From TrEMBL:
Keyword field: DNA-binding, Transcription, Transcription regulation
Molecular function, one GO term: sequence-specific DNA binding
UniProt cross-references to InterPro entries, sorted A to Z: LysR-type_TF_proteobact-type, LysR_HTH_N, LysR_subst-bd, WH-like_DNA-bd_sf, WH_DNA-bd_sf
Domain named HTH lysR-type: residues: 6-63
UniProt source species: Methylobacterium terricola
Biological process annotations from GO: DNA-templated transcription
Entry keyword Transcription: yes
Database matches in NCBIfam families: PRK11139.1
Protein name: Transcriptional regulator GcvA
Similarity remark: Belongs to the LysR transcriptional regulatory family.
Amino acid sequence: MRRALPPLNALRAFEAAARLGSFKAAANELGVTHGAVSQQVRLLEDWLRTKAFERHNRRVVLTPAARAYLAEIGPALDRIAAATACYGHDEGAVLRINAPASFALRWLVPRLAAFRTRHPGTQVRLETSNQPLEALAAPYDIVIRGGPDRFYGVAARPFLSEERLPVCSPGLLDRVPVRCPEDLGRHTLLHSASLPRLWDDWLAAAGIPGLQPAAALTLDHFYLTLQAALDGIGLAMGPTALIADDLAQGRLVAPFPGPRLPARAYCAYVREGKAVDEPVASFLAWLLEQGEPVGAR
């Protein structure tokens, strides 16, 4: 028979908040934000169709039904942990990282081999997501997002600045030269569905807001847009942090020195107190070494 089981992350958030009597303390234990714990508890309450907590100032108090539920699932989670310890294997230090897919593919993954060579005892687990920090349910040691933004109990470490400007393959310019911004009217402009106004903003900054390109192509991920530019399909709005290697090696060229659109810096978000852990501290130091701090341009 199929078991009617609630989401495991919701159970873990509920059990931690119930045991500690605080969403904040539960967030610190699980390595997530206060908002993520609240979201998971609401998910469990919706699944159970009953209220689990009564809020009293900064503390939360279990309802009688939730107290009985905790008495059952608490030992069950303990047994799962004990069984995992018996049958699992020691992988050494595990560093859990969450980053946007385009950043991971274009910047982080090509550099990870260097980090692993320097820290062979640290196992890196990388997941990609564009979810807001407060919506992430799984516990991550480091979350990479734009910023810096402020979150309760979380420190932001900017490590890489970014701007955006038109780029394309050298072969495309050989076929159809671009000598001034108006020449873009002879080309295909590549758009990313996640940032649909980049070209409009750049054309306005260049003083030609009404320009109509020969064609337009929209792709659902930024890294697909950049790949289309590399393949000579058209011109893309290139994020300088993610195309630096391509520009340096001549795979992409920037027809114009400017204007450059400002963009948010890449930041490493770490729960307060977690940054002193050796694997986390080592990765943060490595990010700062590999990146370009804000204001360095």
